[in-house]
Amino acid sequence: MSIWRVLLSVVLPPLAVMDRGCGSIIIVCILTLCGWVPGVIAALIILNNPKK
């Protein structure tokens, strides 16, 4: 995970998970609408998992 991805996930969480698939984007968007902090946490967790 690069430093740019971490910064992007803090500023705009849905944009940081664009390459992880539609489900990840939807989850992060919903959590970001509920509150900024849950969206950031979800984005960081998704970005920390290795691609399968």
TrEMBL record:
UniProt family annotation: Belongs to the UPF0057 (PMP3) family.
Keyword check for Transmembrane: yes
GO CC field: membrane
Protein keywords: Membrane, Transmembrane, Transmembrane helix
Entries under InterPro entries matching the protein: PMP3
Domain of life: Bacteria
Protein name: YqaE/Pmp3 family membrane protein
Regions crossing the membrane: 25-47
UniProt-annotated location(s): Membrane
Pfam family, one: Pmp3
